[in-house]
Amino acid sequence: MDDQMKVHIAYDGSACADAALDDLCRAGLPDKAECRVLSVIENWLPPPSGLDILEHIDLDQEYITLATQAASRVHELRRGWEVKAEVGVGSPASVIIEKADEWKPDLIVLGAHGRSALGRFFFGSVSQKVLHEANCAVRVARSREEEPDRPIRLIIGFDGSEGAEEVVRAVTARNWPANCEARVVYAAWPSLDFAPRPLVGQIANWIADEDLRIRKSVDAVVSDLNAAGLQTTTVIKAEEPKQLLVSEAENWGADCIFVGARGLGTLERLRLGSVSSAVAARAHCSVEVVHAQK
């Protein structure tokens, strides 16, 4: 990548937002990058008038200070980054997406929960809206208790789709430390209990061919990740994808799950549902959803 990476961070001053800043050091991000830290004034009502304007001005200053302090913190963590602070007003998800559409970052970073009751109530819809509508990778960051000298551990959800291939390219393009570990997780197809009897044979043959193709692709993915310096293993189980990714990450103590924004074709999407959304909501670690480049 010739141009510097662009990272857009949504920050609200909560403990989870601070954890998202710390998580930047375990995301394999480059030494040099452009970064904007955005604090959004939640405004679900019409603009204030009369004496309320004074309170609104104080609120503006509070969020300007919030974004500025967060930008300083990012600069302390990532000395080579060019960091700027900005403030927006409105629905958090809409403002985050609008700012991202204008600036076109490579990555949006969100904390797992907001600081206010209103923020916590709306967080699910905020994260899901950003995950679905952003045109770049989105990282929903969560903190983990760090053990001394423990390597960074990455779960990579793989289903053989173009989106999954994009995930692998994104991971191998990052700057990971020498002892970083990766685990490729493929949720193989279960039995055909859901299929009508006349179609069982046809679907079974299709599934067998797809499973063989994906297993061969997993081998190639492992080679690519090893070549990028990642110590890579695999987990292949006939299990529901959302459940397998989350449980494997928790049992292994992963720092982040990488998944694609979309899976395979119509039949696969019908079986999977929205894997990326469910994993981002359920996981106990950070989750990065990679959108295919347009």
Descriptive tags:
single chain; 294 residues; alpha/beta; 10-stranded mixed beta sheet; 10 strands
Overall SS class? alpha/beta
Helix count equals: 9
Order of helices and strands: EHEHEHEHEEHEHEHEHHE
Mean pLDDT: 83
Shape: globular
Biggest sheet, spatial arrangement of strands = 3-2-1-4-5-10-9-6-7-8
Q: Name the poorly predicted regions.
A: 53-57, 116-123, 264-273
Radius of gyration: 21 Å
Write the topology of this structure:
Elements: E1 5-10, H1 15-23, E2 33-42, H2 52-77, E3 82-90, H3 92-103, E4 107-111, H4 117-133, E5 137-141, E6 153-157, H5 162-172, E7 181-187, H6 200-227, E8 231-237, H7 241-252, E9 256-260, H8 266-272, H9 275-282, E10 286-290
Parallel strand pairs: 1-2, 1-4, 2-3, 4-5, 6-7, 6-9, 7-8, 9-10
Antiparallel strand pairs: 5-10
Helix pairs in contact: 3-4, 4-9, 7-9
Structural commentary:
The chain has 294 residues and is an alpha/beta fold. Helix content is 44%, strand content 22%. Strands 3-2-1-4-5-10-9-6-7-8 form a ten-stranded mixed sheet, sandwiched between helices. Strand 2, helix 2 and strand 3 form a beta-alpha-beta unit. Helix 3 packs parallel to helix 4, helix 4 packs antiparallel against helix 9 and helix 7 packs parallel to helix 9. The protein is globular, with a radius of gyration of 21 Å. About 8% of the residues have low confidence.
